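stuck on this:

***
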Amino acid sequence: MRFILLHHHIFKNAGASLDMALKRHFGQKFTEFHPSGVDNGRIYKRQLLSLLESRPDIEAISSHHFLGRDFRSLLSQEEMERFVFHDFSLIRHPINRLISTYLYYRTIGSGQHPVQIIANKYSAKGFIEALLDKHPNFVINPQVTIFGCDQYGSAPSSKNLDIATNRIARMSVIGTVERYHDAMTVGEYMMQPIYPSLTLHGRRENRSDQSKIGGYDGSLPAIRGIIGDALYDTLLRVSELDIQLWVNASNELDYRIRHVPNFETRLKDFYHRCDMPTAKMTSTQ
């Protein structure tokens, strides 16, 4: 039986940082998987199994195209006897995520992606207004869509939120970007029976350049001040389910922390391995 770690790398959800930690730990037994033929943006089961058959050395895989899919539920009995999947992912406050998306595209400059074009054409406020007008799938509860819907086609409902919440609760490692270090500390502890020496520390990768928005300090009140009350309140309304999913992920993390002996000591050790002083034990954008 093979134990396979699957990182559901959600765009702008600290996935690059986790990928770097996994690559450092697993070395050549880690790979990123981005096949050209995907099912509505999601990887087919046969594609994943084909990769595992061709690479018997692989122990950890990261992909932007796993998108919350529960591959274990798709396995036959014979396949379940051969593979055990351990899913990793993180949820982010949707408004922080949206601003991080804007900053990322502004940092890398012009390109062909339609959202990238919009980001380099408009201010942060104009960017959000343009997405609401032309690309609602980027704004209307996208994380609930990822974890609770088969595909985007209508606004997710409370039923999709329930599906998404149940899905993330079954993941081996789950938490929020804002509490990244807490989540990784819990993950290291809980995964010891499968990966006894697993370490998930490392520097934060692909972080947004906040200086590209005047007056932005990474906080939600600063975003409200930059885009205005009316637009901010609109974002709260169309992100309601994503915000609740983010709260649910944080609550799930709190539940798991209560089962980690000496959590604070382990967290301090995690920060020490990241070469970060305890005084800076707060999440960053």
In short: The chain is about 50% helix and 5% strand.
